[in-house]
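In the design runs reported in the main text, the only information available to the sequence generator was the tokenized backbone. The following block is the verbatim input for one such run; it is reproduced so that readers can re-run the procedure and compare outputs position by position.
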């Protein structure tokens, strides 16, 4: 992807062994990914790239925070994220015929670089929990927006609009 060249690793010139790469990820990183749910992030990603004779082992270590919204009341909050992920990259004669799974990626022997931007994007997203409740702190009462919670509980004031007379006539029909 244009603009993400710093995430391209030219592995051809690297010696066999472990090579370390550090990336600082901010909100601008996610603008390169269409329909990204993350808009703001401050994360550090350390990559240990192990080059072996016939394949590569990539160990990602993610640590930081993501600005997200509470799923219950929509108040924005910073969610701490962390995670360790491993990916294997192997060579294949025809990589398009081999399906990628979560941990193994096949590339052509003609490739000269490995782009890790999409892997970092996926791993940061995987660090977020399924349910984001930022207003709950252990040992404390939830700090959610009280007005929103009233509506959720059905106790909030909801203005009823005038009923359309065409639909009111249908209420008079009885089911047999």
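Verbatim output:
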């Amino acid at each position: 992807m244009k603009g993400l060249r710093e995430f391209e690793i030219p592995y051809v010139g690297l010696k066999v062994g472990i090579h370390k790469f550090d990336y600082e990820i901010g909100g601008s990183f996610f603008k390169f990914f269409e329909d990204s749910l993350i808009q703001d992030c401050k994360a550090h990603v350390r990559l240990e790239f192990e080059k072996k004779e016939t394949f590569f082992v990539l160990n990602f270590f993610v640590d930081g925070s993501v600005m997200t919204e509470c799923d219950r009341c929509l108040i924005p909050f910073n969610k701490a994220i962390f995670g360790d992920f491993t990916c294997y990259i192997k060579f294949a004669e025809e990589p398009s015929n081999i399906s990628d799974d979560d941990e193994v990626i096949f590339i052509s022997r003609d490739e000269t670089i490995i782009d890790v931007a999409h892997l970092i994007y996926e791993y940061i997203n995987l660090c977020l929990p399924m349910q984001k409740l930022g207003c709950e702190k252990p040992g404390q009462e939830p700090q959610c927006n009280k007005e929103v919670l009233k509506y959720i509980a059905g106790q909030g004031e909801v203005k009823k609009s005038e009923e359309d007379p065409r639909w009111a006539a249908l209420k008079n029909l009885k089911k047999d």
